[in-house]
Amino acid sequence: MPVVGVLVLVVAVALVVVAGVWAVTALSSGAKHTAATKKASPSASSSSGGGASAGAGYPYGADVGLKSPLRTGDCVRAVWTGTPFASRPRLGVVSCAHGVPDGQVMAVDAAKDFGDARDHGGERCAGDVKGVVGALADAGVYALTPTEAGFGAARGGTACLVLGRHAPIGGAIGRFRSPGSNVWTTEMSVGDCWLYVDHTTYFTATLTDCADQHTDQVIGSVTAPKAMAFQDALRRANTLCGNRFESTWAPGSDRSVFGYLSDESNWKAGFDSVVCTVGKADRSRTTGAISSSGTTP
Questions:
Q1: Which listed residue, of 18, 51, 108, 195, carries a Cα 20 to 30 Å from 184's Cα?
Q2: Per residue in 218-255, is it b (16+ CB within 10 Å) or e — as a string?
Q3: CA atoms 67, 71, 73, 78: torsion sign
Q4: Which is it for the CA torsion 246, 248, 250, 256, positive or negative?
Q5: Prediction pTM value
Q6: Which residue spans within 165-212 are E strands per DSSP?
Q7: Span 122-127, mean pLDDT?
Q8: Is residue 76 predicted with pLDDT exceeding 90?
Q9: What are the tens digits of pLDDT across the range 181-239?
Q10: What are the phi and psi torsion angles at 165 (to 5°)?
Q11: Which region holds residue 142: left if phi is over 0, alpha if psi is between -120 and 50, else beta?
């Protein structure tokens, strides 16, 4: 089916948060678009340990700043001390729902001793969270190993963190979400089904079980061309996703592929991914997950 058929329905949609909801901005085409702003500069929380010297009181060292070990499900804000993912971050635990987290602890790998954590904790973490990272549009894994002095305080655990590479993920991810919660583009994972809910002046994307009624199913993401400006990507989001996924996921006339962007500030920070979904061409609700062959089991 020609991609132009997709553009007639939805010319490109960017998910944006304003006071916790997505505002709708009408563009010249007359179609609905959303602007985007769920953002905040990452910083360490009050749980950080300041500049105190390293020791057993800091499971991961005073540079990380945490006085208590991270637990599976904790959401964090991160300030990198050097190159992201290649340096030690300063961390603070924040609310998953309201703290605009950079990411979340998806697992804690228990090592038999410090040497095991140092030498193998990172490798095991990478394996444990590979599926979560691969399902998100722009995320990476960071294994936070305890220091030798803090090994006991950390209970021998290496925290397996999934963090946004260029922008805060913004909320809980993976199994820590539940149907009925709102999801933003930075949190959307392959396989997610969600319901577009129009509130006239804004809309929300409510996570659902795929067996229940929904309008969109996340099927992947594409990276916009390097030279493409944000407004161009906004207008061409459906085309970018359609070129990649339409022949497989929407080969007939009843389905279409749609593209969703994050906000312009995230775009400028390097989040140039377009989240791609499949749904009914007329944007009506459907039930049942669609397989990669474009069929509903």
A1: 108
A2: bbbbbebeeeeebeebbbbbbbbbbebbbeebbeeeeb
A3: positive
A4: negative
A5: 0.80
A6: 193-198, 202-208
A7: 96
A8: yes
A9: 999 999 999 999 999 888 887 778 999 999 999 999 999 999 999 999 999 999 999 99
A10: -75, -35
A11: beta
